[in-house]
Amino acid sequence: MTVSEVIAQIKEGKSLAGADLTGLDFSSQDLSGADLSGANLSGCNFSGANLSGADIRGANLNGATLINTNQNGTKIDLQRVLSRISSGWTMDGVDLSGMDLSGQDLRNAKIIYANLSGCNLEGADLRGATLNESDLSLANLTGADFSGASLKRVNLTRANRTGAKIPKSALKKAYIAGATAYRS
């Protein structure tokens, strides 16, 4: 199946659940609302693509490129996200808003330009993580450990930071309730 055939089927509202789309280049394509659940998307390039509202639960994303991808409202598996993070993937621009990541081991995670608003990170281990330019507004950070993390230019507006270990050095130009936290 070619990229144009896939796009045509998506526009017609057809499901591509379980389809083998290995290695296709979907860069800058509109895949919004697509049902790609359980599909083989290994080696696919989604750079700059619109995956908003798409269902990629259970899809094989091994070797897939998801840089600058619009994933607003994309349905994804929590365990798959955690697996990618622990494998050293950089999660660039992902929408994980409202996700329950409480108590998770997210050490050295690279989650940049991401939407983590309303996320539950209570008790999460984020030591050494890079969350630069991410939105953590309204997130629950109670007891989370950000030792050695980088939170440059993150939005922490109305985030619950009770008992969180967030060193000042991690908060370069972080935005908190209408003010820049630390200017260094």
UniProtKB/TrEMBL annotation:
Signal peptide: none annotated. This is Secreted effector protein PipB2. It comes from Mariprofundus micogutta. It comes from the Bacteria.
